[in-house]
Design a protein that fits this description.
By secondary structure, this protein is an all-alpha fold. It is built from 31 helices and no strands. This is Protein high chlorophyll fluorescent 107.
């Protein structure tokens, strides 16, 4: 009242709006509230539930949430991980990591349509400037066999960032699977040009050289890969498998040792090494390595599958069945487990059981390479059982998935030959040679590509002996393991200590028992006990008392 009186005394007009003088003369408090209201938003979509606005969380919460989501995904708690990632996308739509992680989690659950939608939403939110989303989307389309679309997405990833090595490498691998070797080499060379040395690019180039029987070049490239990243378990394993193919068992064993030292908990390293030892006759060593791998990765079905096949060959079928059952319970959607189990039952004479297991494998996915192998194995079963029409249908179905399978074509031809249909058998063989994809790979690229690897071409030529007879020398039949002692594998195997002229028996001074005891806290004498315990109950991580005390007193941080 006093304020309004003062305004009247100052000469404010009274007759502006007759009958509405109360409304037309707001008090000082009302004017202040009006100005305050103008600054307030009318409403906040999806954030006004608590009656006020919520501030954007700190960026550190994004990193913590992404870490928590990955941990939950590793524990197969996908729904909880998805909820966390959706919140991350809501609060930080411009960050591409949330889209990539969520898309991968959906892909693991075979929700490929939903994963595609997430990647598309991420590309729109980041305005197409995040190469990681493009690359993951391309990998997804490649798995769905949309090759043309995958190429477009890989191209978009390289446009977004030409230094994104994963895009160059993934695109090159796609072209290799399509038989475009020259295109793949060109993409890998571009990756090295823009991104510098990378172990995955060197490794893929080395595998191409090994496939073309240019083993010295392959060893050089593997050496480059391990120099780029000495902790790259994949490079050591790929190099080891090259030496296995060349029957250089001592070199292969040393490389396997390097692989497990580079990544002690890597399931692939223990698996491939264990299978290698079993194949060369060291059954006990192979069994031990597979058990170590299972103790470190108790939820991996592949290790149990290989262990089951080993036990079937060298022990009893009943023990193998127990291991197959445990593997199938760990991952019911892992097709090779059901296929291997069906093959064992067929060998044991349990035809109906084998059919059921093959049918179970095909019910998971009937379009994969594993499905093609399953159909081929089932066809052999029906052929031996006398169901020739069923065998023919199964072989045809297998070739519809993988028309490049030499084994399937020749097995079908042999069936017709056994039935006296020589003309039909010859037609089947001709069909294989007519439709197969011929991959022609020349050696002319080597000299030019080495310019990209290292400008010092003369020194590399001396290293690889790139002279007149290089290609002919590289294509000679491989030497046996004894040639290592004569120094024929230098200079690459010299770094591994293989051509020093010393007979080191098993392979090296590497103490496996001491390694797993010191680095992995595993007791070699209790591996069998660990196998039994993992079969009786689900694997649980042992928590130290100190960590338990910390977890009890720690307050959890959640997103608003």
């Amino acid at each position: 009242m006093d304020v309004s009186g003062e305004e009247n005394d100052d000469g404010s007009e009274d007759g502006e709006a007759e009958g509405d003088d109360v409304i037309s003369k707001p008090s000082g408090i009302d004017a202040g509230l009006e100005e305050f209201a103008k600054k307030m938003p009318l409403f906040e979509p999806e954030r006004g539930e608590s009656g006020g606005t919520l501030e954007k969380p700190l960026a550190v919460n994004l990193d913590l949430s992404l870490y928590k989501a990955r941990v939950l995904a590793r524990k197969y708690r996908y729904e909880e991980a998805e909820k966390i990632l959706e919140k991350c996308i809501y609060y930080w739509p411009e960050d591409g990591r949330s889209y990539v992680t969520l898309g991968k989690i959906l892909s693991k659950q075979a929700k490929r349509t939903e994963a595609r939608a997430v990647y598309e939403r991420g590309c729109q939110a980041t305005q197409g400037e995040n190469p990681y989303i493009w690359q993951c989307w391309a990998v997804l389309e490649n798995k769905m066999r949309n090759i043309r679309r995958a190429r477009e997405l890989f191209d978009a990833a390289t446009v977004a960032d030409k230094r994104h090595i994963a895009a160059w490498h993934g695109w090159a691998v796609l072209e290799l699977k399509q038989g475009n070797v020259k295109k793949a080499r060109h993409l890998l060379a571009k990756g090295l040009k823009f991104c510098g040395g990378n172990e995955y690019v060197y490794q893929t180039l080395a595998l191409l050289e090994a496939k073309a029987n240019r083993y010295e070049q392959a060893r050089y490239l593997f050496c480059q890969a391990t120099k780029c990243n000495p902790k790259s378990c994949a490079s050591w394993l790929a190099w080891a498998q090259l030496e296995v193919q060349q029957e250089n068992n001592r070199a292969a064993r040393l490389l396997f040792e390097k692989a497990v030292q580079a990544s002690p908990k890597n399931r692939f390293a223990w698996h491939v090494w264990g299978v290698f030892e079993a194949n060369i006759g060291n059954v006990d060593m192979g069994r031990k390595l597979l058990k170590i791998g299972h103790a470190l990765n108790p939820r991996d079905p592949v290790l149990l599958q290989s262990l089951a096949l080993l036990e079937y060959k060298h022990s009893t079928a009943n023990l193998a069945r127990v291991l197959f059952r445990r593997a199938s319970e760990l991952d019911p959607r892992h097709q090779p487990v059901w296929i291997a189990w069906g093959w064992m039952e067929w060998k044991e004479g349990n035809i109906s059981t084998a059919r059921e297991l093959y049918q179970r494998a095909l019910s998971i996915d009937s379009t994969t390479e594993s499905a093609a192998r399953c159909l081929q194995a089932w066809g052999v079963l029906e052929q031996r059982a006398g169901n020739l029409s069923a065998a023919r249908r199964l072989f045809r179905s297998s070739l519809n998935i993988n028309s490049q399978s030499y084994v399937t074509w020749m097995t079908w031809a042999a069936l017709e030959e056994d039935q006296g249909n020589s003309v039909r058998a010859e037609e089947i063989r001709n069909l294989y040679f007519q439709q197969r994809t011929e991959v022609v790979d020349d050696a002319s690229w080597v000299t030019g590509f080495l310019d990209v690897i290292d400008p010092a071409l003369d020194s590399i030529k001396r290293l690889l002996n790139l002279d007149q007879g290089l290609i002919n020398k590289a294509r000679e039949p491989s030497k046996d393991a004894e040639s290592i002692e004569d120094g024929a594998e230098e200079p690459f195997l010299t770094t591994l200590g293989l051509n020093d002229g010393n007979d080191i028996g098993y392979g090296s001074r590497f103490d496996l028992n001491a390694f797993i005891k010191d680095k992995l806290s595993l007791d070699p004498s209790k591996l069998d006990l660990l196998m039994e315990n993992s079969g009786n109950s689900s694997p649980k991580r042992v928590t130290s008392p100190r960590r338990m005390w910390r977890s009890q007193n720690r307050t959890t941080m959640t997103l608003p």
